[in-house]
Write a structure and sequence with these properties.
13% of the residues lie in helices and 56% in strands. Strand 3 and strand 4 (38-42) form a beta hairpin. By secondary structure, the protein is mainly beta. It has 1 helix and 6 strands. Strands 1, 2, 3, 4, 5 and 6 form a 6-stranded antiparallel beta sheet that branches. The chain has one domain: Jelly Rolls, CATH 2.60.120.
Length: 89
């Protein structure tokens, strides 16, 4: 799934996690993230991010960020589905 998200200044997403991996790119503005307790400031068209399934994260908007994020099943889920389809375990 591909998303395009714009935050209002000062908007925040509280601490959370997902059961899938996530990739993203800041297109405009700045995004502040706290991932597994480590702070990151992401800027436009220079910073990408990759977050593994179950990592904890909090996101805050700085300078009205517009960012693209892509998510899907974890590599492990995809690997297991491939094994089932081929008859392997």
């Amino acid at each position: 799934m591909l998303n395009l998200i714009r935050f209002e200044p000062g908007a925040e997403v509280p601490l959370h996690s997902h059961d899938h991996e996530q990739l993203g790119l800041v297109l405009e503005g700045m995004q502040a993230s706290l991932v597994d307790g480590v702070a990151h400031e992401l800027g436009p068209l220079r910073d990408t991010y990759s977050r593994v399934a179950s990592s904890t994260r909090r996101i805050a908007g700085r300078k009205e960020p517009l960012f693209s994020t892509s998510s899907g099943p974890s590599a492990r889920t995809t690997e297991n589905a491939g094994r089932r389809a081929s008859g392997r375990r």
